[in-house]
Design brief:
The structure holds two protein chains of two kinds. In chain A, strands 1, 2, 3, 4, 5, 6 and 7 form a seven-stranded parallel sheet that branches. Chain A has two domains: 184 residues, 3-Layer(aba) Sandwich (Rossmann fold), CATH 3.40.50; 38 residues, no CATH class. Chain A is globular, with a radius of gyration of 19 Å. The mean pLDDT of chain A is 94. Chain A is α/β, with parallel strands linked by helices. Chain A is built from eight helices and seven strands, in the order βαβααβαβααββαβα. In chain A, helix 1 crosses helix 7. In chain A, helix 1 links the parallel strand 1 and strand 2. In chain A, 43% of the residues lie in helices and 17% in strands. Chain B is an alpha/beta fold. In chain B, the strands form two sheets. Chain B has a five-stranded parallel sheet with strand order 2-1-3-6-7, sandwiched between helices. In chain B, helix 1 packs across helix 6. The chains are: A alpha/beta, B alpha/beta. At the A-B interface, helix 4, helix 5, helix 6 and helix 8 of A face helix 3, helix 4, strand 4, strand 5 and helix 5 of B.
Chain lengths: 226, 196
C-alpha cells in the first residue's frame, strides 16, 4: 500500500489555511486506500528527536505533499529550515513524489508561481525528489483556517481548491503527471476593473476598522527617529 | 553632512561557513564611502519566526505584539531608520537561508495591511515614506545560473513589496577571490549611488 506524508508548513500550525487543506487532502488519500499522515513542521522542528522522526517519515513515504503559505515572496523560514535539513540528510528520494501546494493572502496565484514555485522545484530536483507538479492558490487566506474552519465547511469559496486537490490525488493514484496549476478562490471578475478598485478599497477599509476597534491607527509609524 | 546608515543581515547557518570574509569586505567598503554600518549575524541573535497572527497590522499597527522575548522589534527599528539594508546569505535553492528569512518575515509590520494594484498585481501599502535600499549578496559553492537567476528574481519580487528606492542582487562563489569581490561590491555601491 502507498503512503503519503502531508507536511503542514504554516507558522499558524493547526489553525491555518494549510491545515484545512491538509485535513481535506488526508481524507481524499484515505478514500483511495492510501495511508496518509499530517506532520506539523512548526512543532517538529522544536527538538532534535522530532527532526529525526520527520526524516524517518519522509524516508518511508511514497508521496510528500507540502502545504505552506507564501510569506514575503517565498517560503516561511520554518519551511526553508526543513528544506535545509532534508538536503543535509542526503537521502535517496528518487522514488518519492514531491508536490508543493502554496496559498497566498493576495489574490494573484501568479505571484506564487513566479516567486516561489521555481525555488521549490529547484529544491526538489537538487535533493532528488520526483517533481509531482504544484498548486498555487491565490486568495488562500480566505479559507479561514486561522479560525479553525475546515475546507468543506466554507461552501462555494472552496470549490476550486477542492477540485484541484481531487485532481492531485487522481494524478498520484493513476501515475499521471500533475502540471503546475494556478487557482484563484475569489472569482477573477472581482480583480478586474472596475471591481478591482472597489475590492482594494474595501480591503483597506476593513483593516482600518479592525485597528480602530482596538483604539489604534492602521497607518501608525512607530520607531521613526528624527 | 548627512551620515547614511547601513545594516547588514548575515544569514549564515550555525556551524557552517559564517561568510565573515564577505561581511568584513562589505563593512569596509561601506565605511570607505562614509556609511555607518552595523552587522547582525542572525544565527547569534535570538529571533523567533513570524507566527502569521497579523497583530502588527490590526492590533498594534507597526509593532509585533504576537511574538515576544526576542530581538525582532529592536532590529525592525534599525531597518526603518537605515538607508541601506544588506542581505548576505548562503544561496539556498535560489532563495534565502532560513536564518535570513526569519528576520525578513518579522519586517511585515513595516508595511500596511491594505493593498494597491500595480501591473495587475496586489501589493501592500507603505507604512513609512522612506524605506532602505537593498543590496542582496548570495554565496554559493558551485556556480549555478538557474539558482542565480532565481535569487535575482526573488529580490526583484521582494522589492515590489518592500519599496526600496534601489535594489541590487548578485551571487558570488564562496571561494571568490577577495580583491575581485571587493571590486564588485565597489561597483555595485557606485551604481546604487550610495555614499554619505
Amino acid at each position: 500500500m502507498s503512503n503519503a506524508l502531508i507536511l503542514n508548513g504554516s507558522p499558524r500550525g493547526k489553525k491555518s489555511s494549510s491545515a484545512s487543506l491538509s485535513n481535506y487532502l488526508k481524507k481524499l488519500f484515505e478514500s483511495e486506500g492510501i495511508d496518509a499522515e499530517i506532520v506539523l513542521i512548526l512543532t517538529q522542528l522544536n527538538k532534535e528527536e522530532r527532526i529525526k522522526e520527520m526524516i524517518e517519515k519522509i524516508k518511508s513515504a511514497d508521496f510528500v505533499v507540502l502545504f505552506a503559505p507564501f510569506y514575503d515572496d517565498c517560503q516561511p523560514s520554518i519551511v526553508i529550515k526543513t528544506m535545509e535539513i532534508i538536503a543535509e540528510e542526503k537521502m535517496n528520494l528518487s522514488n518519492k513524489t514531491f508536490i508543493p501546494i502554496i496559498n497566498c493572502g493576495l489574490p494573484e496565484p501568479e505571484q506564487i508561481s513566479e516567486g516561489v514555485i521555481p525555488i521549490y522545484n529547484r529544491f526538489a530536483t537538487t535533493v532528488g525528489f520526483k517533481w509531482g507538479g504544484s498548486l498555487a492558490i491565490g486568495g488562500g487566506e480566505g479559507i479561514q483556517g486561522r479560525f479553525g474552519k475546515q475546507l468543506d465547511e466554507i461552501g462555494a469559496f472552496a470549490k476550486n481548491a477542492i477540485e484541484a486537490l481531487n485532481d492531485i490525488v487522481h494524478s498520484l493514484v493513476s501515475e499521471t503527471q500533475y502540471p503546475n496549476v494556478e487557482i484563484i478562490l475569489v472569482p477573477k471578475i472581482f480583480y478586474k476593473w472596475p471591481l478591482a478598485n472597489l475590492m482594494t478599497s474595501m480591503n483597506s477599509k476593513s483593516w482600518k476598522k479592525m485597528a480602530e476597534e482596538k483604539g489604534e491607527k492602521v497607518d501608525a509609524q512607530p520607531y521613526l527617529e528624527e | 553632512m548627512i551620515i547614511l546608515k547601513a545594516v547588514i543581515f548575515n544569514g549564515a547557518l550555525a556551524n557552517k561557513n559564517q561568510q565573515m570574509t564577505f561581511q568584513k569586505i562589505i563593512e569596509e567598503e561601506l565605511t570607505n564611502i562614509g556609511i555607518d554600518t552595523e552587522s547582525l549575524i542572525m544565527n547569534q541573535i535570538e529571533i523567533k519566526t513570524c507566527i502569521g497572527c497579523f497583530k502588527c497590522w490590526d492590533t498594534t499597527p507597526g509593532i509585533c505584539s504576537g511574538v515576544k522575548g526576542d530581538s525582532g522589534e529592536e532590529i525592525k527599528k534599525k531597518v526603518i531608520n537605515c538607508d541601506l539594508l544588506v542581505f548576505l546569505t548562503p544561496l539556498t535553492f535560489g532563495g534565502y537561508s532560513s536564518e535570513l528569512k526569519k528576520i525578513i518575515e518579522r519586517l511585515l509590520g513595516t508595511l500596511q495591511p491594505g493593498v494597491f494594484r500595480k501591473n495587475g498585481e496586489s501589493h501592500h501599502l507603505k507604512r513609512y515614506e522612506k524605506y532602505p535600499s537593498i543590496l542582496a549578496i548570495a554565496t554559493t559553492e558551485k556556480r549555478d545560473e538557474k539558482e542565480a537567476k532565481l535569487f535575482k528574481n526573488l529580490i526583484k519580487r521582494h522589492s515590489l513589496n518592500f519599496h526600496p528606492p534601489k535594489h541590487e542582487a548578485e551571487v558570488f562563489l564562496v571561494n571568490e577571490e577577495e580583491n575581485q569581490f571587493r571590486s564588485n561590491i565597489k561597483q555595485i555601491l557606485a551604481k546604487m549611488e550610495m555614499s554619505s
